[in-house]
Amino acid sequence: MPASTSTRLWASMCRRMPGTEQIPVTPAGSSAPAARRPCGRQTTPEPTTRLKIEKDGGTPFMKILVVDDHALFRAGMRLLLNNLSDAATIIEAATLPEAVAALGEHPDMTLCLLDLSLEQANALDALAALKSGAPHVVFVVVSARFDADTIRAALDSGAMSYVPKSMPAATLAEALRRALSGDIFLPEEVRVLVSAPAGKPTLSPRQLDVLHALARGLPSKIIARELAISVSTVKEHIGAMFISLGVRNRTEAVIVASRLGLIATLSK
Asked: What pTM was estimated for this model as a whole?
């Protein structure tokens, strides 16, 4: 659990748990009001970041599903998300079946934070299954697993971001904000880890279709129409290609792909 999340959770527990009253301390020879000994470690508060999306009518609204088999982590994540969003409904699931049921019960779910270490479930198969059943939901992986193959596979399976649990809360806030805007986002440490290796990367057939469309200079809406897929799916393929090719924008993607022989020309 990120340090900032555990700090907030501990502070909350200190306020609620019996036997953790703050102890008044009066300096010797002083009539000043008693100071209080802080419960837990003192930290400088982080600036809060509000996450909002606009529902029809302009009212901020968000439903967030937290899928993790550790109850303590889910509780800490709930505290963090409630701090980040003024109008969020947080729903929890400890297993894949619970997550599937929650998505079915809440068709207006906005965002899903998914751990890849669920018991009795293949992590990447779980992500693919959830994404297939709820293609409109933005999936962000928050996991202790931190290896390049897993991160690439998660992005290929539909995740819009991958945030290791060791990252600070501010990084998660940025990931959620970017993912909700339709962007693939990786923290710098993750991006460096999954930078394209030497040699030719492997792209899926659909990613190659999107890549050839990019080489023709087509915008996402036209690509979606030609390939009979949604614009959000096009963006997911583009983001995954950027990771595989180690590039930051469409122009770099076309140039690198041409140099690697993935596309024949730079035709438009």
From this structure: 0.59
